[in-house]
Amino acid sequence: MSDDTFYPPTHPPDRIDMDLKRCFPPVINEHTCLLVLGSLPGEASLAQQQYYAHPQNRLWELLGAVIKVDLRAQGYEQRLASLLAHGIGLWDVIAEAERKGSLDAAIRNHSHNALTELIATAPALRAVAFNGGTAARIGRKQLQGVGGLQLFDLPSSSPAYTLAFAQKLDAWHAISAAL
After folding, report:
1. Catalytic residue positions?
2. Distances (CA, A) of 134 to 96, 120, 130, 161
3. What InterPro entries does the record point to (predicted)?
4. Model confidence pLDDT, tens digit, residues 113-127
5. Eight-class DSSP state of 173
6. Domain boundaries in the chain?
7. How many Å separate Cα 156 from the centre of its chain?
8. Which CATH number does 17-178 carry?
9. Each residue of 62-108: pLDDT tens digit?
10. In whole angstroms, what is the distance from residue 158 CA to residue 160 CA?
11. How many other CB atoms are there within 10 angstroms of residue 74's CB atom?
Protein backbone atom coordinates (compact mmCIF):
# COMPACT_ATOMS: atom_id res chain seq x y z
CA MET A 1 0.00 0.00 0.00
CA SER A 2 1.57 3.30 -1.07
CA ASP A 3 1.36 6.46 0.91
CA ASP A 4 0.05 9.17 -1.45
CA THR A 5 -0.31 11.71 1.33
CA PHE A 6 1.26 15.07 0.52
CA TYR A 7 3.28 16.61 3.30
CA PRO A 8 4.12 20.28 2.62
CA PRO A 9 7.65 21.30 3.41
CA THR A 10 8.13 22.97 6.75
CA HIS A 11 9.76 26.35 7.05
CA PRO A 12 10.78 28.37 10.05
CA PRO A 13 7.96 30.84 10.85
CA ASP A 14 10.02 33.88 9.83
CA ARG A 15 10.60 32.41 6.36
CA ILE A 16 6.98 31.81 5.43
CA ASP A 17 6.09 33.86 2.35
CA MET A 18 9.61 35.27 2.17
CA ASP A 19 10.75 35.71 -1.39
CA LEU A 20 14.31 35.86 -2.54
CA LYS A 21 14.75 39.26 -4.19
CA ARG A 22 17.62 40.08 -6.54
CA CYS A 23 18.91 43.43 -7.66
CA PHE A 24 19.23 44.61 -11.24
CA PRO A 25 22.50 44.99 -13.16
CA PRO A 26 24.33 48.27 -12.60
CA VAL A 27 23.63 51.24 -14.87
CA ILE A 28 27.11 52.67 -15.37
CA ASN A 29 29.60 53.54 -18.10
CA GLU A 30 33.15 54.86 -18.40
CA HIS A 31 31.92 58.45 -17.95
CA THR A 32 30.04 57.84 -14.69
CA CYS A 33 31.33 60.22 -12.03
CA LEU A 34 28.55 59.71 -9.44
CA LEU A 35 27.07 56.35 -8.48
CA VAL A 36 23.71 56.41 -6.68
CA LEU A 37 23.25 53.29 -4.56
CA GLY A 38 19.94 52.11 -3.18
CA SER A 39 19.38 49.11 -0.93
CA LEU A 40 17.34 46.60 -2.98
CA PRO A 41 14.51 47.10 -5.51
CA GLY A 42 11.00 47.12 -4.07
CA GLU A 43 8.05 45.07 -5.25
CA ALA A 44 6.89 47.57 -7.90
CA SER A 45 10.40 47.81 -9.33
CA LEU A 46 10.84 44.05 -9.40
CA ALA A 47 7.46 43.56 -11.06
CA GLN A 48 8.31 46.10 -13.79
CA GLN A 49 12.03 45.22 -13.92
CA GLN A 50 12.89 48.92 -13.59
CA TYR A 51 14.79 50.88 -11.00
CA TYR A 52 12.54 53.10 -8.85
CA ALA A 53 9.28 52.07 -10.54
CA HIS A 54 6.95 52.80 -7.61
CA PRO A 55 4.93 55.84 -8.74
CA GLN A 56 5.41 57.57 -5.37
CA ASN A 57 9.16 57.08 -5.24
CA ARG A 58 10.72 60.50 -5.76
CA LEU A 59 14.14 59.50 -7.15
CA TRP A 60 13.35 60.66 -10.69
CA GLU A 61 12.17 64.07 -9.45
CA LEU A 62 15.15 64.46 -7.12
CA LEU A 63 17.77 63.58 -9.73
CA GLY A 64 15.85 65.50 -12.39
CA ALA A 65 15.98 68.64 -10.23
CA VAL A 66 19.72 68.20 -9.74
CA ILE A 67 20.48 67.80 -13.47
CA LYS A 68 17.65 70.11 -14.61
CA VAL A 69 15.90 67.47 -16.75
CA ASP A 70 12.27 66.37 -16.38
CA LEU A 71 13.01 62.67 -15.95
CA ARG A 72 9.40 61.85 -15.03
CA ALA A 73 8.31 62.94 -18.51
CA GLN A 74 10.69 60.42 -20.11
CA GLY A 75 10.30 56.70 -20.64
CA TYR A 76 12.43 54.40 -18.52
CA GLU A 77 15.19 53.77 -21.08
CA GLN A 78 15.45 57.51 -21.80
CA ARG A 79 15.71 58.22 -18.05
CA LEU A 80 18.66 55.87 -17.79
CA ALA A 81 20.27 57.42 -20.87
CA SER A 82 19.77 60.91 -19.41
CA LEU A 83 21.41 59.90 -16.14
CA LEU A 84 24.37 58.37 -17.94
CA ALA A 85 24.70 61.46 -20.15
CA HIS A 86 24.99 63.53 -16.96
CA GLY A 87 27.56 61.18 -15.40
CA ILE A 88 25.17 59.42 -13.00
CA GLY A 89 24.97 55.66 -12.52
CA LEU A 90 22.59 53.48 -10.49
CA TRP A 91 22.95 50.26 -8.56
CA ASP A 92 22.15 48.69 -5.19
CA VAL A 93 24.31 47.66 -2.26
CA ILE A 94 22.45 44.36 -1.81
CA ALA A 95 22.78 41.65 -4.46
CA GLU A 96 20.01 39.46 -3.07
CA ALA A 97 18.02 39.04 0.10
CA GLU A 98 14.91 37.52 1.56
CA ARG A 99 12.23 40.13 2.04
CA LYS A 100 8.47 40.11 2.42
CA GLY A 101 7.15 43.32 0.90
CA SER A 102 9.27 46.34 0.03
CA LEU A 103 10.48 47.77 3.34
CA ASP A 104 14.20 47.72 4.10
CA ALA A 105 13.37 46.73 7.69
CA ALA A 106 12.12 43.38 6.35
CA ILE A 107 15.40 42.49 4.60
CA ARG A 108 16.89 39.23 5.89
CA ASN A 109 19.89 37.10 4.93
CA HIS A 110 21.30 39.53 2.41
CA SER A 111 24.44 39.26 0.32
CA HIS A 112 26.35 42.29 -0.92
CA ASN A 113 27.02 43.46 -4.42
CA ALA A 114 30.67 43.68 -5.47
CA LEU A 115 30.92 47.45 -5.05
CA THR A 116 34.69 47.70 -4.84
CA GLU A 117 35.06 45.61 -7.99
CA LEU A 118 32.56 47.79 -9.87
CA ILE A 119 34.25 50.97 -8.67
CA ALA A 120 37.58 49.66 -9.95
CA THR A 121 36.06 49.56 -13.46
CA ALA A 122 34.80 53.16 -13.33
CA PRO A 123 37.76 55.46 -14.06
CA ALA A 124 35.78 58.72 -13.85
CA LEU A 125 33.98 57.88 -10.59
CA ARG A 126 34.44 60.60 -7.97
CA ALA A 127 31.50 60.09 -5.63
CA VAL A 128 28.96 57.64 -4.28
CA ALA A 129 25.54 58.72 -3.03
CA PHE A 130 23.59 56.41 -0.75
CA ASN A 131 19.83 56.61 -1.22
CA GLY A 132 18.62 56.06 2.35
CA GLY A 133 19.94 54.81 5.65
CA THR A 134 20.10 51.11 4.83
CA ALA A 135 22.10 51.75 1.67
CA ALA A 136 24.45 54.06 3.60
CA ARG A 137 24.99 51.63 6.47
CA ILE A 138 25.71 48.63 4.23
CA GLY A 139 27.52 50.57 1.50
CA ARG A 140 29.87 52.47 3.81
CA LYS A 141 30.89 49.19 5.43
CA GLN A 142 31.67 47.71 2.00
CA LEU A 143 33.65 50.77 0.92
CA GLN A 144 35.86 51.00 4.00
CA GLY A 145 39.41 51.39 2.82
CA VAL A 146 38.44 52.64 -0.64
CA GLY A 147 39.98 56.06 -1.00
CA GLY A 148 39.43 58.96 -3.35
CA LEU A 149 35.63 58.94 -3.29
CA GLN A 150 33.31 61.53 -1.84
CA LEU A 151 30.43 59.80 -0.02
CA PHE A 152 26.95 61.30 0.39
CA ASP A 153 24.34 59.94 2.80
CA LEU A 154 21.01 61.11 1.38
CA PRO A 155 17.44 60.83 2.66
CA SER A 156 15.58 57.98 1.03
CA SER A 157 13.55 58.77 -2.06
CA SER A 158 11.05 56.12 -0.95
CA PRO A 159 7.50 57.12 -0.02
CA ALA A 160 8.02 55.13 3.21
CA TYR A 161 10.43 57.85 4.35
CA THR A 162 8.05 60.71 5.06
CA LEU A 163 10.43 63.67 5.09
CA ALA A 164 8.96 66.52 3.03
CA PHE A 165 10.05 66.59 -0.61
CA ALA A 166 11.59 70.07 -0.23
CA GLN A 167 13.81 68.81 2.59
CA LYS A 168 14.83 65.76 0.58
CA LEU A 169 15.62 67.99 -2.38
CA ASP A 170 17.78 70.31 -0.26
CA ALA A 171 19.87 67.33 0.81
CA TRP A 172 20.04 65.81 -2.68
CA HIS A 173 21.37 69.06 -4.18
CA ALA A 174 24.67 68.32 -2.41
CA ILE A 175 25.52 65.77 -5.12
CA SER A 176 25.76 68.58 -7.68
CA ALA A 177 29.32 69.11 -6.48
CA ALA A 178 30.27 65.67 -7.81
CA LEU A 179 28.91 66.24 -11.32
Report:
1. 57
2. 14, 23, 8, 12
3. Hypoxan-DNA_Glyclase, Uracil-DNA_glycosylase-like, Uracil-DNA_glycosylase-like_sf
4. 999 999 999 999 999
5. G
6. 17-178
7. 10
8. 3.40.470.10
9. 999 999 999 999 999 999 999 999 999 999 998 888 878 666 666 67
10. 5
11. 15
